[in-house]
Design brief:
This protein is mostly helical. The protein has a domain at 1-118. The chain contains 14 helices and no strands. α3 (32-47) crosses α6 (74-94) and α8 (122-134) packs antiparallel against α9 (140-152). The radius of gyration is 18 Å and the shape is globular. The model is unreliable at 8-31 (pLDDT under 50).
C-alpha cells in the first residue's frame, strides 16, 4: 500500500470496510495443513492493512478450520486475533455492548492460550493492552502489558506501526519508562522511513504531548525532519 494511502487509512481510525473481498476457499474446504497456508496468507494481507467486511471475518472465525488451529500456530493465531479485534472494535463503535463483550472475552482467551505456548509474543501483549484501553481500564497492570510488548519486540516494524497508534493517545498517562519507549519508537519510525505513521501518531497525541514529540523530531537529521513535516502537512490538509 502506498505510504499516503496508509497514512489516510490509519488517520480514519483503522476501520474495516463493509465491502467483502473474496478469501481463499481453502480456509473452508481444504485439509488443515493447507488451510494453515491460507491463514498465513490472510495474516499477510491483514498486516498490509487490506480491508475485509465483518461478515467475512465472522464466516472465517466460525469455519471448521479455525476451530482446530493449534495455539502454537503463530501466523494463524495472529490472523484470528486481527479479525477478532476488528469485530470487537466494530461492535464497540456501533454500541453493541453485548457483542463487544463477547468478542473481547474471546480475544482475551485466545491471547492467553497463545502466551501459554510462547510468552514472547509482542503482538499478543499489545492486543491485551488494547483490550484494556477499549474497556476504559488504565492502571499499572495495563501499562505492564504495553511494557511487555516493548520488552519482547522493541524494534519490529509491523508491530511498532500498530503499537504507536494504540499507545500515543495515552502517552501522558503512561509511567515514565513506558512514556520514554513511546517517544523513542516515534523517533525511530521517522528515522526508518515510516513518516506517514509517525505523522498520524503525532495527530493522535494529546496537545500537551506534542512539544515532547517535536523535541524528538529536532534530534533527527534535516532530511528526516523535512519528510516528517511534509507528511504532517499532507495529513492535516486531508483532515481539514
Amino acid at each position: 500500500m502506498p505510504r499516503h494511502s496508509l497514512g489516510l487509512f490509519v488517520l480514519r481510525g483503522l476501520t474495516f470496510s463493509i465491502g467483502c473481498l473474496g478469501l481463499a476457499w481453502g480456509i473452508f474446504v481444504l485439509p488443515q495443513s493447507e488451510a494453515a497456508e491460507d491463514f498465513r496468507d490472510l495474516e499477510s494481507r491483514l498486516l498490509r492493512f487490506e480491508t475485509f467486511g465483518p461478515a467475512t471475518f465472522t464466516r472465517i472465525l466460525e469455519s471448521q478450520a479455525s476451530q482446530h488451529l493449534s495455539a502454537c500456530d503463530t501466523h494463524s493465531q495472529r490472523a484470528m486475533l486481527l479479525m477478532q479485534m476488528a469485530l470487537a472494535q466494530t461492535a464497540l463503535r456501533s454500541g453493541a455492548v453485548n457483542e463487544f463483550d463477547w468478542h473481547a472475552k474471546s480475544v482475551e482467551a485466545r491471547s492467553r492460550r497463545i502466551l501459554s505456548c510462547s510468552s514472547r509474543q509482542s503482538f499478543v501483549w499489545l492486543v491485551l493492552f488494547d483490550l484494556e484501553v477499549l474497556h476504559g481500564v488504565l492502571n499499572e497492570h495495563s501499562f505492564d502489558l504495553l511494557a511487555m510488548s516493548y520488552e519482547t519486540s522493541p524494534n519490529e516494524g509491523w508491530i511498532s506501526i500498530r503499537r504507536i497508534l494504540v499507545a500515543m493517545p495515552l502517552i501522558l498517562t503512561a509511567p515514565e519508562p513506558v512514556r520514554q519507549r513511546i517517544l523513542n519508537e516515534f523517533q525511530l519510525l521517522i528515522r526508518y522511513g515510516f513518516t506517514d505513521v509517525a505523522a498520524v501518531a503525532y495527530l493522535r497525541a494529546p496537545t500537551l504531548a506534542r512539544s515532547l514529540l517535536e523535541t524528538g523530531v529536532k534530534q533527527l537529521d534535516i532530511s528526516q525532519q523535512r519528510k516528517f513535516s511534509d507528511e504532517l502537512q499532507t495529513l492535516q490538509k486531508l483532515r481539514s
